[in-house]
Amino acid sequence: MRIKPDHEKLSYCGRIDRRSPKEPVFVYPCTSVGMRFTGNTLKVYVRNRSAYWDNYLGCILDGRQTALALPPDGSAELEIQVEQKEKAVHELLLFKRQDACHEMTFLGVELEDGAELLDMPEQPERKIEVYGDSVSAGEVSEAVEYAGKEDPEHNGEYSNSWYSYAWMTARKLNARIHDIAQGGMALLDGTGWFHGPDYIGMETAWDKVHYHPELAETSEWDFSRYVPQVVIVALGQNDSHPEDYMKEDFDGEKARTWRTRYGAFLRKLRGTYPDARIICCTTLLNHDPAWDCAIGRVVEELGDAKVTQYMFRRNGKGTPGHLRIPEAEEMAEELAAYIKKTEGWSDTWKG
Q1: What's the pLDDT tens digit per position in 181-218?
Q2: What is the superkingdom listed in this entry's lineage (predicted)?
Q3: DSSP string covering 4-36
């Protein structure tokens, strides 16, 4: 029995290109589709386009997580082993482990004849949105033996958004998440590491569904489709490349320009989400504290009581490599506790 992607009992979350309802495209990490079903066989149909690295689809079936290898380009039929149980009800979550190193089109699933697709629980009313880089995307998070160390050599196999501090925080808050995170991304075009040498920054990508020019034509996002109560802005980590001007000359022209543009970005978010709490931060990944000072100055000058800065206990000095699962957990614990203390948490956030 073939289940098409537009079936009403499938449960989606994420900034998804759904212009073609039977071919939804997953671009961002943490993007997911969930389902409950009966029967003991399962096949998943996908199409993948890769820009770099090996690509994998995240799969959690009945609480057990696996990674399914995707073809670098083209369609695939992925057979998932289902534990054989009589009259069993299974729960499945398929999710994008990686950022826009690839885009994946979900083409549906196939169940055995006589199987049934069941209702999913209602999604939480709480919603968060994260704007960030590789740490927010969970890049290299599964290389746990390298906690506190530089990254090992890899080709995408250790990246898993499920273990990003962003998704961990959402789960602790019982909240949905849109994770607008891309490895190497800085705030400004022409800086950071993403899509070099023609670097693309968050200023360009933040309001897009597709933003990687090698994978698809750029397209705009309809912000009415998802309105978060909390927005996390975790930028300032990759902005020191190719020049760490905030460290070298805090009051220089380039540093002042960055602060002006960062403030303008926050005002864009405020205009988009008039009622949201906006939390500005960086991460445990090593960086010069001048960037946190710059963020703090912008937040103070903005004078918006609902825009704050959060500094982690080991901010900017936790690890020289990407965050592994325990380090992401550390960030998520702190961030979730901070969000829970914000005014209006228990009154306006149901679920």
Answers
A1: 999 999 999 999 999 999 999 999 999 999 999 999 99
A2: Bacteria
A3: -TT-TT-EEESSEE-SSTTS-EE-STT-EEEEE
